[in-house]
């Protein structure tokens, strides 16, 4: 059997409720995939979907975005869904930018808001 696709899920604090709702609404699709997530986001996803295969990495400000960037570089993450808060300054803004840069360098699908994430889910599930 082919390896399951691995999707990275991340949400900034003001977007975590939205991501939890999104994860629940698409639980059947996510159940077919491996999931990696930054620490707090992963916890929120598991709160609403405890059966999903979620690997929690470090929290974003403590290196979680960089861990996911490294997994993109090694080919271990094939899809990035990142609900970004565009209205709040982040201490780890450079890490966020570096993550997005690697998603572009390695040309993986990257959704930065819910509308795009919905389309990625529709397009990628099988
Ligand atoms: O800060 C983040 C992304 O930049 C997300 O990290 P948490 O999921 O740990 O809150």
TrEMBL record:
Domain MGS-like: 1-126
Residues that, per the record, bind substrate: 12, 16, 38-41, 59-60, 92
GO cellular component, one term: cytosol
Enzyme Commission code(s) on record: 4.2.3.3
Any one GO BP annotation for this protein: methylglyoxal biosynthetic process
Substrates-to-products reaction catalysed: dihydroxyacetone phosphate = methylglyoxal + phosphate
Sample GO molecular function, one term: methylglyoxal synthase activity
Keywords in alphabetical order: Lyase
Active site: 65
SMART domains per UniProt: MGS
Domain of life: Bacteria
EC class: lyase
Family membership noted in the UniProt record: Belongs to the methylglyoxal synthase family.
Function, as annotated: Catalyzes the formation of methylglyoxal from dihydroxyacetone phosphate.
HAMAP family: Methylglyoxal_synth
Record protein name field: Methylglyoxal synthase
Organism: Ensifer oleiphilus
Organism taxonomic ancestry: Bacteria, Pseudomonadati, Pseudomonadota, Alphaproteobacteria, Hyphomicrobiales
Gene it is expressed from: mgsA
């Amino acid at each position: 059997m082919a390896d399951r696709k691995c999707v990275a899920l991340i949400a900034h604090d003001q977007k975590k409720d939205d991501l939890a709702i999104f994860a629940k609404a698409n639980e059947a699709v996510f159940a077919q995939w491996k999931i990696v997530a930054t620490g707090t986001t992963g916890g929120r996803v598991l709160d609403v979907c405890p059966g999903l295969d979620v690997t929690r990495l470090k929290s974003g400000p403590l290196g979680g975005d960089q861990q996911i960037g490294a997994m993109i570089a090694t080919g271990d993450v094939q899809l990035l869904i990142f609900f970004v808060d565009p209205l709040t300054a982040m201490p780890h803004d450079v890490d966020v930018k570096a993550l997005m840069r690697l998603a572009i360098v390695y040309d993986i699908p990257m959704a930065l808001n819910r509308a795009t994430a919905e389309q990625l889910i529709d397009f990628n599930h099988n």
